[in-house]
From TrEMBL:
It comes from Jejubacter calystegiae. Belongs to the shikimate kinase family. AroL subfamily. Binds 1 Mg(2+) ion per subunit. Residues 112-126 are annotated as: LID domain. The lineage of its organism: Bacteria, Pseudomonadati, Pseudomonadota, Gammaproteobacteria, Enterobacterales. This is Shikimate kinase 2.
Length: 174
């Protein structure tokens, strides 16, 4: 199997963290669409949104998705990548898409501990817990529609990696 692997899911579900560990386990390269676009723009997410609005950011993240997609590549997407129908279709057709599913409580706990405001400016103007609930309610169906596999992202990162390898039939002890 050499197809690109796309990780999707809400802010804080661990796409960036798990993506790096999954790439190591498979000896694949790792790319994160947010890292790519921030390097390309010379600005962080908050600065892009301030200058160009969310519409500008969404355009840049679709470009990033196209740019980083390659064989033997693990790709951590941003939480809103699935909003565009063309991104969902592109990921499903070009590779294997994995939804890292976690509860609102778990996501809010992680984001409260590590808000990373430059990477995650507010989407709704609400507090973290309310925002996570509102955004997940709006996007959960899109993550499921995009995904070939759903894994439990509330476990420690290495266990999430193991679940993914099992879903891909790349591990023996599942
Ligand atoms: N499986 C996990 N268990 C506990 N904490 C995690 C896990 N995955 C990620 N984290 C932590 O949650 C925060 C967000 O993780 P990150 O990988 O940036 O998520 P995402 O890219 O999906 O927004 C980080 O502080 C990270 O250390
Ligand atoms: O959910 C979202 O709309 C976003 C998630 C962020 O990425 P992470 O999911 O890696 O935090 C980043 O792309 C941007 O702040 C928008
Ligand atoms: Mg991330």
């Amino acid at each position: 199997m050499t197809q690109p692997l796309f990780l999707v899911g809400a802010r804080g579900c661990g796409k960036t963290t798990v993506g790096g560990e999954l790439a190591q386990a498979l000896n694949y390269r790792f790319a994160d669409t947010d890292h790519w676009l921030q390097q390309n723009a010379g600005m962080n997410v908050a600065q892009i949104v301030e200058g160009e609005g969310w519409a500008g950011f969404r355009q840049r993240e679709s470009q990033a998705l196209q740019a980083v997609t390659a064989p033997e590549q693990v790709i951590a997407t941003g939480g809103g990548m699935v909003l565009a129908d063309h991104n969902r279709r592109f990921m499903r057709e070009r590779g294997v898409v994995i939804y890292l599913e976690a509860s609102v409580a778990e996501l809010a706990r992680r984001l409260e501990a590590f808000p990373e405001e430059g990477q995650r400016p507010t989407l709704t103007g609400r507090g973290i817990s309310d925002e996570v609930a509102e955004v997940l309610a709006a996007r959960d169906a899109l993550y499921r529609e995009a995904a070939h596999h759903v894994v439990d992202a509330s476990l420690p990162p290495q266990q999430v990696v193991t679940q993914i390898l099992c879903a891909l039939r790349l591990a023996d002890a599942c």
